[in-house]
TrEMBL record:
GO terms for molecular function: transferase activity. It holds the Pfam family GtrA_DPMS_TM. This is Glycosyltransferase. It comes from the Bacteria. Keywords: Membrane, Transferase, Transmembrane, Transmembrane helix. Residues 290-399 form the GtrA/DPMS transmembrane domain. Residues 26-188 form the Glycosyltransferase 2-like domain. It comes from Nonomuraea longispora. The chain crosses the membrane at residues 287-306, 312-332, 344-364, 376-393. The keyword Transferase applies. GO terms for cellular component: membrane. The keyword Phosphoprotein does not apply.
């Protein structure tokens, strides 16, 4: 069932000069929040009326409350001209945002938590980067150096550990996936939501992972944040669900199912008479750099393998040579292949395991007594054959285009 109690935006928004500005729909998902909802909406509406320069609307999404939250939401929609209320039977913050953002007529969709833990002074900086066209998504971050937070030690540790996992496991550039303070271009976020499967707390993370995977720009705004002791978040259970979600998203990315056709801003020259280089020249330069690194890595692998073979078995020698060569190899890709900021993550590790398995099988298949040179020749030839495949995968899979 999907019921609504709505008051559409005032007609003046369609008549005066404000219609030339981006229109923002701020969603507040609620579940059994009869205590916090009235104060949140009145505070937010007052702030927007006095200090927010863009046309706006507040949308309350009640997703399955069993207390008096829905009655309060409809009353608030009647009290304020620019407050819209909507009720869903499906629970979960992700389900609430998905429903509200898909149906919103606004140019920019945003959301914040009902407890107003994030200081509202960060709202316009958050929306401005999206309204200007500079970024497709903007998020608040509690982990930036200039952010100021007040929360329990347990939540601080869990939050930092979780976001570190995202950085080092997925190579993301954003620092705080779960801050309940985000904005996005409506036309961009809707195709992404078609791929997002989670309807609960992992919705935010999945959306951001898909956004960066598909080359969208995510802008971060440091925020002031104070923890509400009455929060509905169950930290341990949420962390477990998030880990399951990460595994699912990792699989989707590795199988190519995470790709989405989205509109994004592309760099264009500002000067009207600028002479722009051909992309093909960059591709050729990148190919040559890959070829040079590949040749270097094969030679390096062979030189490392030979002395280690005097100390270890063929399988252990192969492992040591691959690890040392791989470290140098990845660093060379970062420095010389137009990747200014790249993080190695689980997909590179999977490629390494495949590489190790194949080269180990090759070296163990060398007949005993064939001689050290034959052994080295076989494993080097196998490694050389895999290098081309590995570099292709690194360019298109491990290091996706941004």
């Amino acid at each position: 069932m999907n019921t609504r109690a709505a008051l559409e935006p005032r007609p003046r928004l369609a008549d005066d000069a404000a219609n030339r500005l981006a229109w923002v729909d701020i969603v507040i998902p609620v579940l059994n929040e009869e205590r916090a909802l009235p104060g949140c909406v009145r505070t937010l509406a007052g702030f927007l009326e006095e200090r927010f320069p863009l046309p706006w609307r507040i949308t309350i999404v009640d997703n399955g409350s069993t207390d008096g939250t829905w009655a309060l939401a409809t009353a608030l929609a009647g009290e304020f001209d620019l407050v819209h209320a909507r009720r869903l039977d499906v629970r979960g913050r992700g389900a609430a945002l998905r429903a509200a953002w898909r149906d919103s007529p606004a140019d920019i969709v945003a959301y914040m938590d009902v407890d107003l833990s994030t200081d509202l002074d960060a709202l316009f900086p958050l929306v401005a980067s999206v309204a200007s066209g500079h970024s497709e998504i903007a998020i608040g971050t509690r982990l930036a150096h200039s952010a100021r937070t007040r929360r329990s030690l347990r939540r601080e540790i869990v939050s930092r550990a979780y976001n570190a996992l995202l950085r080092y496991g997925f190579g993301v550039r954003f620092s705080d996936a779960q801050c309940g303070f985000k904005a996005a271009r409506a036309d961009v976020v809707r195709p992404l939501m078609d791929k997002v499967e989670d309807d609960a707390w992992f919705f935010d993370t999945e959306l951001l992972l898909l956004a960066e995977h598909n080359g969208l720009r995510v802008h971060e705004v440091p925020v002031d944040w104070i923890e509400d002791a009455d929060s509905r978040v169950r930290v341990v259970r949420t962390a477990i669900d998030d880990l399951k979600g990460l595994a699912r998203v990792a699989w989707s990315m590795s199988t190519g199912r995470a790709s989405v056709a989205v509109r994004r801003s592309e760099p264009r020259p500002t000067h009207p008479d600028a002479v722009v280089g051909r992309p093909r020249a960059v591709t050729l330069a990148k190919f040559l750099s890959f070829a040079a690194i590949g040749l270097f890595s094969v030679i390096l692998y062979t030189l490392i393998y030979l002395p280690l073979r005097d100390l270890w078995s063929p399988a252990m020698t192969n492992l040591g040579a691959l690890v040392l060569t791989g470290i140098i190899n990845i660093e060379a890709n970062r420095r010389w292949t137009f990747r200014k900021r790249t993080t190695v993550h689980f997909r590179a590790f999977l490629l390494f395991l495949v590489n190790y398995a194949i080269t180990t099988v090759a070296v163990l298949k060398v007949p005993p007594g064939s001689g050290r040179l034959t052994e080295v020749g076989v494993v080097a030839a196998t490694y050389c054959l895999l290098t081309l495949i590995r570099f292709t995968a690194l360019d298109r899979w491990v290091f996706p285009r941004k």
